[in-house]
Amino acid sequence: MPFAQLVIGPPGSGKSTYCDGMHQFMSAVGRKCSIVNLDPANDRTSYPCALDIRDLVTLEEIMADEELGPNGGVLYALEELEHNVEWLQDGLEKLG
Q1: What's the confidence (pLDDT) of residue 1?
Q2: How far apart are CA 21 and CA 65, in angstroms?
Q3: How confident is the model over 31-50, as pLDDT tens digits?
Q4: Residues of the chain by 3-state class (helix, strand, coil), percent to 5
Q5: Long-range contacts made by residues 80-84, C-beta under 8 angstroms, separation at least 24?
């Protein structure tokens, strides 16, 4: 049975550091670990993302096209994800 952790928090709170540490730990103990990035502002990860919202839409693209700031851009990206929920569902199903 698949198990998931939802890691949320404000910028700079250590979400990426936590995900990187969990990926290293799970790899060290021989367990499968798939990280799903739903933060369009997170453009630098030190771990592989099995599914990445930036493959659907990027914050820079939204900010330029829609003339929004970073906060508005993140909200817009989440609305795009809502309109393309099949993309997320299909990606998650492939992960098992």
Answers
A1: 64
A2: 35
A3: 999 999 999 888 888 999 99
A4: 50, 5, 45
A5: 80/56, 81/38, 81/53, 81/56, 81/57, 84/56
